[in-house]
Write a structure and sequence with these properties.
83 residues, mainly alpha
Length: 83
């Protein structure tokens, strides 16, 4: 079965995108492939199973304060929080 592809525009934090691309490259994957994999997993499972518990609070906050998520990200702090 042939999959039809569609071009989609996403607005991403440039620093976060670049860091993600560098890390994905180590796994032999590009950003488009990653997004497709994550969307497929999202459709297969409940959101709660896919995302950590604190993400629900972030999503609720995002709905109320979208502009706060457009601020630059401190990548060093972000990486420390992931560990």
């Amino acid at each position: 079965m042939r999959t039809t592809k569609v071009r989609t525009n996403l607005y991403l934090n440039s620093e976060l995108k670049e860091a993600a691309q560098e890390k994905l490259e180590r796994y032999g994957m590009n950003l488009s492939a990653f997004v497709n994999v994550m969307m497929a997993k999202f459709l297969q499972k409940d959101v709660e199973m896919l995302l950590p518990p604190e993400t629900e609070a972030v999503l609720k906050d995002f709905e109320g304060r979208r502009e706060s998520f457009e601020a630059p990200i401190d990548l060093e702090r972000f990486e420390k929080e992931l560990k």
